Every structure is written in C-alpha cells, then in structure tokens.
From TrEMBL:
Enzyme class: transferase
Pyruvate kinase barrel domain residues: 88-415
UniProt record similarity statement: Belongs to the pyruvate kinase family.
Keyword Cell division: no
Required co-factors: Mg(2+); K(+)
Name of the featured protein: Pyruvate kinase
InterPro entries recorded: Pyr_Knase (IPR001697), Pyrv/PenolPyrv_kinase-like_dom (IPR015813), Pyrv_kinase-like_dom_sf (IPR040442), Pyrv_Knase-like_insert_dom_sf (IPR011037), Pyrv_Knase_AS (IPR018209), Pyrv_Knase_brl (IPR015793), Pyrv_Knase_C (IPR015795), Pyrv_Knase_C_sf (IPR036918)
Pathway: Carbohydrate degradation; glycolysis; pyruvate from D-glyceraldehyde 3-phosphate: step 5/5
Keywords on record: ATP-binding, Glycolysis, Kinase, Magnesium, Metal-binding, Nucleotide-binding, Pyruvate, Transferase
Catalyzed reactions: pyruvate + ATP = phosphoenolpyruvate + ADP + H(+)
Domain of life: Eukaryota
C-alpha cells in the first residue's frame, strides 16, 4: 500500500456486514480488510479547533419510521428513479418575472428542478416581490419543495440609459441621436436619457458609445456639457434601460466615480429582503471588497444569516477579483454586463478563471446571462447555447442561472428542462472521463484558514471516490464540512443533515449537496442510525449500499476518525 500522511489502524467491532466490508476493502486496498477503519492524523497543524467524524458503513439494519426527514420532494423522486449516481449535481437558478410569477408556474419550475428563485429588484414593486416570496415559501411548506430565495440589488446605475419607450427602438445607420442627462417624462424622438450626471465626463469626439455590448454602436460627434450628440455607425436595437460603455482606440474608457455600490434604493430593498426572510442577497456592480464586507457586517449585527453574493460584471471587479471572492459568500459571473466592459473573446477564459478561483477559495459560483437567450422566443435552444451550458458544467460551476428565459420568456419551463438535461449529461460524461487512469487529476492543495477541516474533507472525498460508496452523509450545523466536501466535487452525492433552516437554504447553492432539515441530537450514533433508517424506510437505501459519514455538528465519539489540535 502506498505511503500516507496518516497512520492506519484496523478494528472489527463496528456493526457492519462482514462480507460487505471485505468487498469495500478490496475496492480500496486490493485485499480483504477488517470491517472498521480508524484513520488518525497526528500532524501538528496550526488551525481552528476542528473536531470531525468520518466513517464508512454498509446499510444492514431494519428501518425505524417514527422520525421525520426533511428531504425535498424533487430529490426524493429523482433518487427513486435514478439512484444516487443519477442525481444532478449542478444547481439551477431561475429569475422570476411576469411570465412565471403565478403559484402554478412557480410550482412547475420547482418540479422541473429550480433550486433558487431570483428576484431582480430593478423591476416591479415591493408588493409584487413580497407576493412571489410568500408563494415560494408556501410551496416549500405545503408541497415539500426546498427552493431558496435570492434578491438582486439594482446597484448604482452609472452607465444605464433609457429611451423612455415601453419596448425596443431601432437605431438606423447614419441616424443622429442625442444622449442627455436632462430629466423628462415619456419619450422624445432620437433622444436617450442617461441616469448619471457625469456619464459623459472624460469623453472626447471620435470615441465610440457601445450599447449593451454591441447591440448598437454610435460615434461621438459633439459634446455639449454633460450631453453627447452621436451618429449611429452600427445599427441595432435600443432596449429600455440599456447599458452604455465608451471605447477609444479599441480599449474601454475606464470611468471612476464616487457613487456608493449600494444606493439608497438598494438599502431599502435589503431591509425588505431581511423582513421577508430571503436567503441570498446578490450585490450589483461590486468594485471592491469593502462594500461586501460592509453589508455582511450590517447583516451580522442584525443577527441575520443571509448570504451575500458579489456580481462580477465590470473591469474594476476583475482587477480586485480575489479580494472580492474572499470577502463574499459566493459569486455570480454576470457575463452580459461583463461582456460590455471586456473584449468578447476574453469572456470564456475569464469565466473559467473565476470558477477556478471560487472553487479554490471554497465559494459557490453562479454562471449567469444569456445561457439560453434564444429560448426567450423559441421553444428549442441553439446548439451553441447547449455547448455553452455544457462547458460551464464541465468547469464545475456550482450553479447555472436563467434570466429573461424564465422571467419574460414564453418557454421558461422548457428552458429549465434544457439546463437540467444538459447539465446531467455533462456531469455523467465528466465522471466517466475523470475515472480514466490517464486523466490528470486537479489537486486543490491547502489554501483555506481551517486546514484541519480542509484536509479531512479532501481525504473524505478521495475515500468516497476510491471506495465507490453510494453517498456521503454529513451532519452539520453551519454547513462548513458540507461546503468543503462539495469543493472537492466527489462522485457520490452529498447529503447534508442540519437542524438550522438557514444552513439548509444556503446549501441549496452548493454543487452536489442535498440539504436536509433534521433534528440533530448530541448523540452521533443516534443521528446516524435515525437518518440511515429513515432514508432506507423510503426505499432509497438497500442492504449492501455503502455511505461515508462526516460530521462537524457535535463532539466526536468512539470508533471515529478524529482530528484534534493539541
């Protein structure tokens, strides 16, 4: 057996089926081993005082049905139909809008696999958002779903312009348009109202004004104060609330401003989100870590466990990427707005870099914007869109997000089904590829503050893959170990049992984690026995199935892998 950084000892008093244990041993070591393994890591490491449990066992006991298991109805159905390895790992986020805000449409999305419902605070009233949130919570309570709620702040809109009309307006080649900061009601011919007084500062004649990343392009022919007179040189559509960017000699004109990341409206929306018990707040137009830290401290002082996600959608956020990722609870790659500020050909590599960094620093990452854009109008996606979705899954993004496809599209449920099918197929292909002996395995290394917990979960994931266990069970209060296991992207699914509802809803965004609300006790053996028996009682575990067990919920007990800082 290859050398290892930890000592191994074998005992035989764990209540497992002996034949099953011998089979597990053969899978790992190539020879029969005793039924129980204790793996003690005795290295002296600087770390937080982490105590954890890791066990491997076969399911052999009879069921006990008197307890309650908070497994959501969609996972339960999928598990019955496909088994453990058939469960989808990539999470799905849907933006709720006029096309899917009814109770019936929300239920359809939940049944189709929606894990998180996103509400864009740029649109609609607080009363409308409140109604949607309460419908989602009602679905969770009455129908057995587990759908988290995210609100997305508007942010300080410094580069947004509006032509005042209800729909798109065509800009013809050679037409002259006036971009002004003057405030007026309604719409004026060939006039666009900019939202920020200083939007034209530093702009020169000859610069190019690009709308929504290339939907239309204008050349500045005259500047008068804060207003610009422009000629259309690349015709296209001007949508309501279009985003503007300025380019000079092929490079973005970077504009620095003193506006706060969170506007007065954003703080009002955040208070609304707190009062409605949302699970995530996504911050728009984040430039650095300070605003993220400020919001997290604000929520902490209010004793709220809402997770804060930072949206990466500007060149400035890319410059400060690592500090933003470290400060946040997760990241959204807003490719639409980001594509306005960097060359199009850089988007794929930037996306991959962000996903890799988030995984290294153990932060969930959502890939968003234009995944299935054509399905706003058409019932089937383009093949290029499916390839784009599959690439995000191959890069191990935690979640994929629908925007207009679900919010205003005619085929929101179909779009969600496409995401589900494409991600499930790519996960299967990636798993088969990773199991090839010649495939290079990417090592995450040691990079997190709590190195003990990190190493336990790294080792647990390798054990789960090598043993070929059917599932990983983790017992957790705050989700740390479940998140660290997810970071390793193990082959078997991760069932996270927690007695904290906020933890359950937060883990909805973590790759491969099925969060389950369960009344944990201080008796680890009792927790294991009850959860295993309850899942077996539902017909989802059978004799001979193997699970690997990890815990950070309670003090360690006998017959466990233990890591202690002396």
């Amino acid at each position: 057996m290859a050398s290892m950084t930890a000592d191994l000892a074998f005992v035989s008093n764990y209540p497992m089926a002996k034949a099953s244990c011998m089979d597990l041993g053969k899978r790992v070591f190539g020879v029969p081993v005793s039924p129980r393994i204790i793996w003690s890591n005795r290295r002296k490491l600087k770390s937080f005082a982490t105590r954890a449990v890791m066990q491997v066992g076969s399911i052999v006991e009879e069921s006990k049905k008197e307890e309650c298991l908070g497994l959501d109805v969609v996972t339960e159905t999928e598990l019955r139909e496909k088994g453990f390895l058939g469960l989808r790992k990539t999470k799905l986020v849907c933006t709720v809008g006029p096309a899917c805000c009814s109770y019936e449409e929300l239920e359809k999305l939940a049944l189709a696999g929606m894990n998180v419902a996103r509400l864009n605070m740029c649109h609609n009233t607080k009363i409308w958002h409140q109604d949607v949130i309460r419908k989602i919570k009602k679905l969770n309570h009455e129908k057995g779903f587990c759908v988290s709620v995210m609100i997305d702040t508007e942010g300080s809109q410094i580069h947004v312009a509006d032509h005042g009309g209800p729909s798109s307006v065509k800009a013809e080649d050679g037409s002259i348009w006036f971009f002004t900061t003057e405030k007026f009601e309604g719409c004026r011919p060939f006039t666009v109202q900019a939202s920020y007084e200083g939007f034209a500062e530093g702009i020169k004649e000859g610069d190019e004004l690009v709308v929504d990343g290339g939907m239309a392009t204008f050349q500045v022919i005259e500047r008068s104060g804060n207003d610009l007179r422009c000629k259309c040189i690349d015709p296209g559509l001007l949508l309501p609330r279009a985003k503007l960017s300025f380019w000079r000699n092929g490079k973005l004109v970077e504009k620095h401003h003193e506006l706060p990341t969170l506007s007065t409206k954003d703080w009002s929306d955040i208070e609304f989100g707190i009062s409605e018990g949302v699970d995530f707040i996504a911050m728009s137009f984040v430039r650095d870590a300070d605003a993220v830290i400020h919001l997290k401290n604000y929520l902490f002082n209010k004793n709220k466990s809402i997770k804060v996600l930072a949206k990466i959608e500007s060149l400035e956020s890319l410059h400060n990427l690592e500090e933003i990722v470290e400060a946040s609870d997760g990241i959204m790659v807003a490719r639409g707005d980001l594509g306005v500020e960097i060359p199009l050909e850089q988007i794929p590599t930037v996306q991959e870099k962000i996903i890799a960094l988030c995984r290294q620093l153990n932060k969930p990452v959502i890939v968003a914007s234009q995944l299935l854009e054509s399905m706003i109008e058409y019932p089937t996606p383009t093949r290029a869109e499916v390839a784009d979705v599959s690439e995000a899954v191959r890069q191990y993004a935690d979640a994929l997000m629908l925007s207009g496809e679900s919010a205003i599209g005619c085929f929101g449920e179909k779009a969600l089904c496409v995401l589900r099918m494409a991600s499930t197929r790519m996960e299967l292909w990636s798993r088969e590829e990773n199991q090839q002996p010649s495939f290079p395995q990417r090592e995450l290394g040691v990079s997190l503050p709590d190195q003990i917990a990190e190493q336990i979960c790294n080792s647990a994931s390798r054990m789960a893959n090598n043993l070929g266990v059917d599932a990983v069970f983790v017992y957790t209060k705050h989700g740390q170990m479940a998140s660290l296991l997810s970071r390793n992207r193990p082959i078997p699914p991760i069932f996270a049992f927690t007695n904290e509802e906020s933890t359950q809803m937060a883990l909805n965004l973590q790759w491969g984690v099925i969060p389950i609300f369960f009344d944990l006790s201080d008796d680890m053996d009792a927790n294991m026995a009850k959860t295993i028996d309850l899942i077996k009682a539902k017909g989802m575990l059978k004799e001979g199935d193997a699970v690997l067990i990890v815990s950070d919920a309670i003090p360690t007990v006998y017959q466990t892998l233990q890591v202690k800082v002396i």
